[in-house]
Amino acid sequence: MRKAIRTLVEEIRNTSQIYQFDEATTKQAIILRLLNILGWNVFDINEVKPEYSMAGRRVDYALLINSHVKAFIEVKKISEDLEAHQEQLLNYSFQAGVKLSILTNGLAWWFYLPLKEGSWDQRKFYAIDLIQQDIEDIAQKFIDFLSKENIQSGYAISTAEKIYKGRIREIEIKKNMPRAWNKLVSEPDELLVELVGETLEKLSGFKPDAEHIKDFLKKNINRLIISDSSPIQTPIPPSYPQLLSTSTNKKQLVTHNTKQTHPRTFPPDGTLCKFEYKGHVYEGIIKNGQLHINGVGVYSSLSAASVAVTNTSRNGWRDWELKLPNSSEWILADTWRKRKYLV
To answer: Strands of 57-65's sheet, edge to edge?
Structure first.
C-alpha cells in the first residue's frame, strides 16, 4: 500500500497537465485511484457511494462500512480555492453526524473532525500537500486517516482526535501564556518576590526586603507586561501546492538530487503589499525576499503573513494585493504569479 501511494504521488508530480484537470478528471485520475490503493472497493456503491444525497444536498463521495457512513469526501477541480467550500462540507457532515470529512482538489487534502467544537480551521486537524510534502509522510498520513482498515477499526478517528487535542492544547497554551506572565508580574506572590530577592542577593551580596521588590515590579510594570494580542499560528501543514508551468519557454521544475521542486515564486524587492481583513488594511513591503508588514512582523511567504494576520490557514496569494516597482496599479498576488509562471 505504501509503495503504491508513493508511485501515485510521483506520477502526479510528473504530470505536466495536472493543473488543467477539471473536477471529473481529478476524481478519475487521483481520488478513485487513491481510494482503491487504500483498500476501498471503488466499484461497490455500498462502500464508495458517489453523489451521496442527504436532504436534497449531495456530497461527491461517502465511504461506508456495513451501510454506515464513516466519511465524506468533497472534490473540487485542482485550480479551485478550497476555503470557499469548507462551510458547506462541514454543515453537511454535522447534519449527517459524520465524524470524518475530507475536502480536496486532488493535490491539497484537508481533513476535518466536523463534530468537534471550534471554527472550521480549528476542526481541520491535518492537511496533505501532494506536491510540497515528503512522500513518505504523505503515504503514512493517508494510511492513518483514510485507509479502509483504519477507518473500520476506529484508529483513524482516534489518531485524528489526538492531533486535534494537541492543536487545541497548543492554541490555549500560546493564548494564555502572556496572560499568566502578566498576572504574575502585576500581582506578584511571595514565591516570585522571594525568587527575585535570592537572585539579587547572589549577584550583589545584599538581599532586599519584599517591599523593595514589589515597588520595583510596580514601577516597571509597563516594561514587563507582554501584549497578548498577537495572532496565534496553528501547526497546520501547507495546504496549497505551488503552481506548475506547462509552457516550455517558462520556468519549469527544478531538480536537485533527483527530487523535483518548484522554483520559489516571490514578488521582487520594493513591491508594496496590502491585505484588507475584517475592516483593517495591513500594509507592507518586500525587502530582501521577505514581506515586512507594518506593526506585525517579517514573513518569508505571503501565506505565512496571512496566517499571522488572520489566525487561520489561508492561501496568501489570494489575500495580498501587490504594487510592483515602477507600476502605478495594484494587482492580486495570485494574478501576478499566474502571469509570470503560467501560459
So the answer is: 48-54, 57-65, 68-75, 100-104, 108-112, 124-129
Read off the amino acid at residue 48.
V
pLDDT tens, 112-153? 988 887 777 778 888 898 888 889 989 999 999 999 999 999
Q: Which CATH class is domain 2-160?
A: alpha beta
Specify the pTM: 0.57
Name the residue with cell 462540507: 89
Domain ranges of the chain: 2-160, 254-341
Helix axes 135-146, 2-13, angle to 10 degrees: 120
Task: Retrieve residue 196's grid coordinates.
Answer: 527575585
Residues 321 and 244: beta-carbon distance below 8 Å: no
Rounded to whole angstroms, how far apart are CA atoms 32 and 42?
Answer: 6
Strands 68-75, 100-104: pairing is: parallel
Listed range (3-7, 152-156, 221-225, 283-287) with the worst mean pLDDT: 221-225
